[in-house]
Amino acid sequence: MKNNNRKNISKYDELQLFAEVDGVCPNCPTILIGDKGGKKRKDYEIAHIYPLNPKAEEIEILKNQEILNSDLNHQDNLICLCLKCHNEFDNPRTLEEYINLLNKKKDLIRLSKEKSYWINSNIENEIFEIIDFLANEDFDFNEPDILNYNPKTIDEKTDSTITKLTKRKIHKNVQDYFNQVKNKFRDLDSLQPGTTETISIQIKQHYLLLRKSDSKKNQKEIFDAMIEWLNKRTKNKSYESSEIIISYFIQNCEIFE
Ligand SMILES: [Zn+2]
Predict the structure, then answer these.
(1) Rounded distance from Cα 81 to ligand 1 centre (Å)
(2) In the chain, % of residues over pLDDT 90
(3) How far does residue 45's CA lie from ligand 1's centre (Å)?
(4) Per residue in 204-213, pLDDT tens?
(5) Cα–Cα distance list, 137 to 45, 54, 181, 192, 247 (Å)
(6) Cβ < 5 A residues, ion ligand 1
(7) How much distance in Å is there from the Cα of 80 to the middle of ligand 1?
(8) Can you point out the beta strands (E) in 53-141?
(9) Average pLDDT over residues 200-220
(10) Nearest CA among 226, 205, 222, 202 for reference residue 214
(11) What totals of helices (H) and strands (E) does the chain contain, helices first?
(12) How far does the centroid of ligand 1 lie from the alpha carbon of residue 87, in Å?
């Protein structure tokens, strides 16, 4: 069997792999830059997900399994792990650990790809008013809001890929804030006509872009990606407000059909 050579990884590829896991081991809570006696040190290694030079028994264990890139030195097959987790992952190789790490890496690749779309999808500045309003207004949740939306819409539009917890969150957001957000948009329209329509189109457009980029992307992944984008676009002002706004647009049918 031919021996694959470990390729020297460039500084930028390494930075990218480090950033991809946010500087924390994806298998445990270890921070990847350690501190020993006030001196920083590198507490990670770059692991090959599918082994670079698998032993016969490893080939057997991993046969028929997905490999993220036929070039085993490609970024897709590499991930930062703390030293302990790297050692555990390699010795002994198990199918369960392989599948687990492979799925984590697939999520990381997906998230990196979604980030590349952030810059392309704009959103009108008026959205900040809604974000601030949701984040700072004192709402009275004891006063029952008169429903002027159909609470069945969410159930009808979501499929089994959305988790129960996420569905519950969307329901709760719509129940508590739908009318508030609607009224706020109306106020904005009276100051600047067309605001609601423009923002609705921008939301829809980003949703379609995510769908087009990966037809296998499920509803939960789309929901999370929409929030991440809106939160980033609104300068990380309030993640919760972004969640409420995205829930609003699910109820309003711009997201999911
Ligand atoms: Zn670890």
Answers:
(1) 6
(2) 85
(3) 10
(4) 999 999 999 9
(5) 47, 59, 12, 22, 18
(6) 25, 27-28, 30, 82, 85
(7) 9
(8) 78-82
(9) 93
(10) 222
(11) 10, 4
(12) 9
